[in-house]
Amino acid sequence: MEKAIKILTQNFGLEDSHTLEAYTKTGGYQAVRKVLGKIAPEGVIEEVKRSNLRGLGGAGFPTGMKWSFISKPSKKPVYLLINGDEGEPGTFKDRTIMTRDPHRLIEGVLLASYALGAHTAYIYVRGEFTFCMEALGKAIAEAKEAGYLGKNILKSGFDLDVYIHPGAGAYICGEETALIESLEGKPGRPRNKPPFPAVVGAFGCPTIVNNVETIAHVPQILLNGAEWFAKIGSDRNGGTRLFSVSGHVKKPGVYELPMGTPLREILYEHAGGIIGDSPLKGVIPGGSSAPILRPEEVDVGMDFDQLAKIGSMGGSGGIIAMAEGTCMVWALHNLARFYAHESCGQCSPCREGTGWAEKVLRRIEGGHGTASDIELLEKIAKGMMTRTICPLADACALPILSYLKKYRDEFEAHVREKRCPVRPKRAA
Amino acid sequence: MSPEVLAFSEEAQAELESILQAYPTKQACLLPVLHLVHREFGYISDPIAEAVAGLLEIPFAVAVEVLTFYTLFARRPQAKYVIQVCRGLSCALLGQEELLAYLKNRLKIKEGEMTPDGLFELKTVECLGGCGESPIVRINETYYELQTIDRLESTLKELSKGPKKGA
C-alpha cells in the first residue's frame, strides 16, 4: 500500500496541475489555513523536525534542524532562499515541481517563511530553465491575487514577498553559499563556513537555503502530521523523494518513491530494466558526485544513511544506469571534464586537481596512458579532498576513487592495450 | 559611457523597474539586469556592461567579472540559432557524440563556430538537466528532447526556412 503514496507528484496527472484552481481543489493551501497565525512558528519547526524531512538537494541535512539555527527574535531581516539551480548531472526532478505543481512549492515557501520569520523569499532558478521561471512567475502572480502572498496573508498579519532570481549557467551556484553570492550579484564562489548562512547569509542577514523538492514537501507534512510523513520513509529518512532515472534504462523518468526503496526495484520495476535486457555494469545512485555502485550492490535501500553505509551517497537522487559495453574510463572522463569546467577556481586543489584529472583520464582513455598514470590519478584525487572551501573537489575525487577501485582492471587494460578495449570505434 | 546606451523597449523598462524593487541592494539586481539586456541586445559588449554598471552604481570591473564568470551571457553577436549539444553523461550514454559529429559535418563548422550566413552556431554544454529525455539539444532557449540524427535534421531544415538575420 505505502508504495503507491504520492505526495509531490499527486497532481502531475491533471492536465491543469500547474494552476491555482487545480491545487486548491486537491487540498492546496489548506496547510496555510491550518497553520498561519494558529500554530506558533516554533511548533511548525518542531513538526518538521519530527517528520525526518531531509534536504533533498544533495546533502540530506535534517530540514527542521537547519531551520532551528535561526536565532529569534532576529534584529535583521531573515531570508529564505529556495535552491532551484538544478544542475547535478543525472538530476531533473525540481523542474517537474516548478512547472507542473508550482503552487505546492509556493505554499511550502509560505509555511517555511512563517516558521523562520522571513518576509522575503527568493527562488533561485537555473538560468536555462526559462520554462520554470515562466510557470513560477504565473503561479506567484496567481497566489498574490488570491491573497496567499503579499501583505497580511489570510488576515494572519503575516507578510511575504516571493521573487524569482535567475541563475546564469554555473553549476557551483547550487552550493548554498555560492548561491547566496550569486543572489547578491557576484560570481558564485562558495564562502568559508563558519559563519553559517543561518547567522550571516544573504546581504549579511540570517538566511536559510532549501532545495525545491524539500520545501514542496512541507505543506503535506503540516497537513497530515510529522508521524504520517516519517512513517512513509525509512529510519531517519522521512517521506518520499523524487528519483531521476536516466542512462541505459528502458523507461527513464522521475519516480516518486518512499525513502529507502531498493535501488534494484527502481531500476528493474519502475524504470523497466536495462535497455536490450543487457547486464548492468554500474550505476550512479545519487547524481554524478556519488561514488559508483557495481551490479551486486543494487539491493541497497535508497536513503541517505543506507547509501553512506556502503560508501556512496544519496545526493540529489539522480540515478544513472550504465549497461555492459560502457567504457568506465570514458564515463569517468566525462564526469571529470564536467567538474573541471564547473570548478569556480578559487581553491587551487580543486582548480588544478579537476583539470589535471581530466587530462590524465583523457590520456588513458585515448590509449596514451602509462601504468603510472593510474597511480597519479589516485594521488590527484586524494590530494583534492577535504582541502577546499566547498565540496566540489570531493564531488570529483570521490567518484574517481570509486571507479579506480571498482573497475581498476579496465583502466589497466587501457594502458596495457594502448587503446580503449570497450568501445574501440569511437565517434570523433 | 553613460546609461543612455541602454535604450530599452517599454516592456523592458517595466521589467527593470520590478527588478530594482525586488532586492535590498543594487548589485543584487545585476544577474537579472544582465539577462534583460542580453535579451534586448542579443549579447553584452563592454559598452553595454559599462552602462549596466553605471545603472547599478557598481564598478565596471565588477560587472565584467560577473558577466564572464557565468556561461549564459554572450560577449559578441550570436548566430540566429545557437545549437547547444548537451554532453552530460546521460546524453553521452545515449548517442550525444554521434549527434555532435553529425552537426559538425552537416554545418561544416567546429564547436564554437558560426556558419558563414550567421544562421547557426554550434556549442557543447554541460548537463542541461533533461537527462530523462536524453540526448538533449537546446537551440536558443528551447529544449529538443530524445534527439536522433533524423529529428535534428528535420529541425535544422525547419529553422533554415526563416529569414536569415535579425529575428
- The largest sheet of chain A has its strands arranged as 3-2-1-4
> Stretches of chain B where pLDDT falls below 50 for ≥5 residues?
none
H and E string of chain A:
HHHHEHHEHEHEHHHEEHEHEHHHHH
Helix content of chain A: 40-55%
Q: What integer is the average pLDDT of chain B?
A: 93
Query: Could you say which structural class the secondary elements and strand pairing of chain B correspond to?
Result: alpha+beta
- Approximately what portion of the residues of chain A adopt beta-strand conformation? 5-15%
Mean pLDDT of chain A: 96
Can you tell me the residue ranges of chain A where pLDDT is under 50 for at least 5 consecutive residues? none
The main β sheet of chain A shows up as: 4 strands, parallel
Main sheet of chain B, how many strands, which sense, barrel?
Answer: 4 strands, mixed
Give the C-alpha Rg of chain B: 18 Å
Q: Total strand count of chain A, please?
A: 8
Q: Bin the helical content of chain B.
A: 40-55%
**Count of separate DSSP helical elements of chain B:** 7
Q: Treating each run of at least 4 consecutive H or I residues as one helix, how many helices of chain A?
A: 18
Beta strands of chain B, count? 4
Give a quick summary of the entry:
The complex is a heterodimer of chains A (428) and B (167). Chain A is of the alpha/beta class. Chain A has 18 helices and 8 strands.
Characterise the protein shown here.
With 428 residues, chain A is of the alpha/beta class. Helix content of chain A is 42%, strand content 12%. Chain A contains 18 helices and 8 strands. In chain A, the strands form 2 sheets. Chain A has a 4-stranded parallel β-sheet with strand order 3-2-1-4, sandwiched between helices. In chain A, strand 2, helix 7 and strand 3 form a beta-alpha-beta unit. The N and C termini of chain A lie far apart (50 Å). The mean pLDDT of chain A is 96. Chain B is α+β, with helices and mostly antiparallel strands and 167 residues long. Chain B is 44% helix and 11% strand. Chain B has helices spanning 10-20, 30-41, 46-56, 60-69, 89-93, 96-107, 149-160, and strands at residues 81-86, 120-125, 137-139, 142-144. Chain B has a 4-stranded mixed β-sheet, with helices on one face. In chain B, strand 3 (137-139) and strand 4 form a beta hairpin. In chain B, helix 2 (30-41) runs antiparallel to helix 3 (46-56). Chain B is elongated, with a radius of gyration of 18 Å. At the A-B interface, strand 3, strand 5, strand 8 and helix 14 of A face helix 2, helix 4, helix 5 and helix 6 of B.
